[in-house]
Design brief:
The complex is a heterodimer of chains A (591) and B (187). Chain A has 591 residues and is of the alpha+beta class. Chain A has 15 helices and 26 strands. With 187 residues, chain B is of the alpha+beta class. In chain B, 26% of the residues lie in helices and 9% in strands. In chain B, the strands form two sheets. In chain B, strands 2-3-5 form a three-stranded antiparallel sheet. In chain B, strands 1-4 form a two-stranded antiparallel ribbon. Bound molecules: iron/sulfur cluster (4 copies) and FE2/S2 (inorganic) cluster (FES).
């Protein structure tokens, strides 16, 4: 911190030293080294209002870097229009949209800041503006974002950006969430002064398997280039040609096909990069946004589900510093189509015949009561929510049933993707539903079925036929209950088929591979008879034991936190949007 | 408290009734000899004035291009939610030339439409107009949901001053003097 040296007439040079130490501030009682403040801050004024900001702010890599004017303005609640700046990307400073005017404290001949008669600092205005995204703040700096000059600059920058831009917002997928469109409304001109023919760049460029590029709309902010080069490490994109002809392109002969390409569609401030999956399928302002989670791996990335009239249109990343920051992998983002499949199980069936929930559950409870303890097994799924697993755990304890889950392993990477392909393996493990290691009980279940020691098998969200059971073995079970979303071989053999819900059709929590408990919410109505598992499991529990069971995920979560030590102290409300870690972290891996 | 309004008793002249009947006949007689104003609808039709807002239909430009680009703003603005648009999806349709986007299906439920004109007002492409049809009939409800083909057929041709797709096509060759990407001409 730069301390303002004040004249110190009483400083006594130490004779032993061969040099004169710099004058110390007065006040001999002060310790020789003043304790540094917890966070080194400085004060600047933004549009005349003082705001204190830390001197250093983590940059895109989390390393401390000098706080910029844009960050100081954000701290003051003043938004500065910008295109190329993104808090998770290196600063490029190429779009010039963030230009602001500023001044620094004027110094007198004695190098001391000059003061106005009212004690405020005299500000010497800089003759030139500066880009707020890349200019560090200095103590006493005055930043102005609402002067006529700044407005004129924004209008000028925008006019240049729009020279060759088609402004075909009615066609463009970005319309409604486009920075260029928003700032054009604020700072654009009603009529163009550009009378020459616009440069027409390639349209509908096939950039990669998941991306279509409209070069005419690109404003050359290089966000996409920086993302894929600096964060993903796949230097696939670049700008070719010069001037008005500058064109974003993939490296010749190479497709832009890494597993994170669709993040560039979110990053792109305009409609240049479009997702082939979402392109021209729905206008964004119709989409209802629901906070949810990706279920494709153990990372549990936070997503927003965009849906309209019970149709799921897209996942977009939801920011969570502890999990996925601002990103999603392409596989997870596109792995939602199964939710809307036409062949989803939608009918409760008892021995192949359609039935009502009331009848099916009454009959099932009766059948379960007749099973002697130890003769049932529950094949749960690590794709079920914590609350559902909690009810299954109670059911297993009641029936004296053994339990297990189906483990799924795949490839992971260093960015987001986790090798565990189940969203809730940790939840299943801490709730004691998974064997050690997960899946170890499956061959034993098959063995015991064949030996006639198991009479009841309850399967949730898995197809045992794909995991080491054959149809003959399954048919040995006197009671086979299958609850699933999609038709599978086991459901055809089952005595009871109970259609379940996808995560987008219910509320609940998952515990990710790192032990973070996160909530997801309902975006869609389930098809047909399908009901959230917590609802009918609670009802089954009531019929089985005569004891009331909660069916709402909120209440189940509270019971879960009370009964399961690993979840102690967590509450549904405190999980918030970004979740909370298990107090003791995830259990150690066993493999 | 209820106020009692005293009713004036009828006079003898009024109680006779005949003078009132005679006055009525006089009016009938006067109109009997005047010019007839009743229109024999539906055999006779009304001349719809210029600017009348009837049923909304879609138009094509002079070269037969569908002007609607499926922006769905009319669907958004329509107060009774009469409009339902199916956007084209990501596949590029090779038959539409350089027209980048057009609706796959466009339905207006004429039973719901209140002829308010918001759709025409909001349309950025001048693709939908309230025309002069005011009496739409059908024998079934489904008949009253007009689809894309029907709306385009009813809408006819709009004399478009801008013709944006044509203009874009015209401008494109100018780029070939200095193609932005050699060999990869714009579509
Ligand atoms: S990029 Fe933005 S401004 Fe350009 S056409 Fe698309 S929505 Fe409009
Ligand atoms: S495609 Fe989008 S993100 Fe990439 S440089 Fe162009 S405007 Fe920026
Ligand atoms: S005229 Fe009004 S009610 Fe009818 S389709 Fe247009 S916006 Fe809807
Ligand atoms: S008619 Fe006009 S407003 Fe409606 S979708 Fe088509 S272009 Fe958009
Ligand atoms: S945001 Fe500062 S130059 Fe682009």
């Amino acid at each position: 911190m730069s301390t303002v040296p004040s004249p110190a007439p009483n400083s006594s040079p130490t004779p032993a030293l061969g040099w004169t130490p710099p004058p110390r501030p007065t006040g001999a009682a002060a310790p020789a080294i003043p304790a540094p403040p917890a966070v080194d801050t400085l004060t600047v004024t933004v549009n005349g209002r003082p705001v204190t900001v830390p001197r250093l702010t983590p940059d895109w890599q989390g390393k401390p870097a000098p706080t910029t004017m844009l960050q100081a303005c954000a701290a003051a609640g003043v938004s500065v229009p910008h295109y190329c700046y993104h808090h998770r990307l290196p600063v490029a400073g190429n779009c010039r949209m963030c230009l602001v005017e500023y001044g620094t404290p004027a110094l007198g001949p004695d190098r001391q800041p000059l003061k106005n008669p009212d004690g405020s600092l005299v500000i010497q205005k800089s003759p030139r503006p500066a880009i707020a995204c890349a200019t560090p703040v200095t103590p006493g700096m005055a930043i102005d974002t609402d002067t006529p000059g700044v407005r004129a600059m924004r209008e000028g920058v925008l006019e240049f950006l729009l020279i060759n831009h088609p402004l075909d917002c009615p066609i463009c997928d970005q319309a409604g969430e486009c920075k260029l469109q928003e700032y054009s409304v604020e700072y654009g001109r009603a009529a163009s002064r550009f009378v020459e023919t616009k440069v027409h760049k390639p349209k509908q460029v096939d950039l990669g398997p998941r991306i279509m590029l409209d070069d005419e709309r690109c404003i050359l902010c290089t966000r996409c280039i920086r993302f894929t080069r600096d964060l993903v490490g796949d230097d696939a994109l670049g700008i070719v040609h010069r001037g008005s002809y500058s064109t974003l392109a993939a490296y010749p002969g190479r497709a832009f096909d890494n597993n994170y390409t669709l993040n560039t569609v979110d990053l792109c401030p305009v409609g240049a990069l479009t997702s082939k999956d979402f392109r021209f399928r729905m206008r964004v302002w119709f989409l209802k946004e629901t906070k949810s989670l990706c279920t494709s791996c153990g990372t549990g990335c936070n997503v927003l589900i965009g849906s309209r009239e019970n149709v799921l249109y897209r996942y977009t990343p939801r920011e969570n510093d502890a999990v996925n920051r601002s990103w999603l992998c392409d596989f997870g983002r596109l792995n939602y189509k199964w939710i809307g499949r036409a062949d989803r199980l939608r009918q409760v069936r008892v021995r192949g015949e359609p039935a009502t929930w009331t009848r099916a559950l009454a009959e099932l409870a009766e059948r379960l009561r007749a099973i002697p303890a130890g003769h049932a097994a529950i094949l749960a799924s690590a794709r079920l929510a914590n609350e559902e697993l909690f009810l299954l755990r109670k059911l297993a304890q009641h029936l004296g049933a053994e339990t297990d889950i189906v483990p799924r392993h795949g490839e992971g990477d260093r960015f987001l993707v986790h090798p565990d392909k189940n969203p809730n393996t940790t939840g299943a493990r801490v709730l004691g539903l998974a064997a050690a290691p997960p899946g170890a009980n499956l061959p034993r279940f098959a063995e015991r079925l064949r030996a006639g020691q198991l009479t009841a098998l309850l399967v949730f969200g898995e197809d045992p036929l794909k995991h080491g059971f054959d149809p003959e073995t399954l048919q040995r079970a006197e009671l086979l209950v299958v609850s699933d979303l999609l038709p599978n071989g086991a459901a055809e053999l089952a005595h009871f088929v109970l259609p379940g819900c996808a995560h987008a059709e219910k509320r609940g929590t998952f515990t990710n591979a790192h032990g973070r408990v996160q909530r997801f919410f309902k975006a869609l109505e389930p098809p047909g008879d399908a009901r959230p598992e917590t609802e009918w499991l609670g009802e089954l529990w009531e019929r089985l034991t005569g004891e009331r069971a909660s069916t709402s995920p909120e209440r189940l979560f509270r019971q879960l936190a009370e009964e399961v030590p690993a979840f102690r102290g967590l509450t549904w409300a405190a999980l918030g949007d970004t979740g909370q870690d298990l107090p003791d972290g995830p259990p150690p891996p066993e493999r | 408290m209820a106020a009692v309004v005293p009713r004036k008793p009828l006079t003898f002249w009024e109680r006779l009734y005949l003078p009132a009947i005679w006055a009525g006949f006089k009016v009938t007689l006067r109109h009997f000899f005047r010019r007839k104003v009743t229109m024999q609808y539906p055999e006779e039709r009304w001349v719809v004035p210029e600017g009348y807002r009837g049923a909304p239909y879609l138009v094509r430009d002079q070269d037969g291009r569908t002007k609607c680009v499926s922006c769905q703003l009319c669907e958004f603005v329509c107060p009774p939610r009469a409009i339902k648009i199916t956007p084209p999806g990501p596949e590029v349709d090779p038959t539409t030339g350089n027209v980048e986007k057009r609706p796959r299906e466009f339905e207006i439920n004429m039973l719901r439409c209140i002829f308010c004109g918001y759709c025409q007002e909001v349309c950025p492409e001048e693709a939908i107009f309230l025309m002069q049809d005011y009496s739409l009939t059908g024998t079934r409800r489904e008949e009253m949901i007009y689809n894309l083909d029907k709306l385009l057929a009813l809408g006819g041709v709009h004399q478009d001053r801008i013709q944006k797709w044509k203009q874009k096509q015209r401008e494109a060759p100018a780029q070939e003097v200095c193609p932005p990407v050699a060999g990869a001409a714009p579509h």
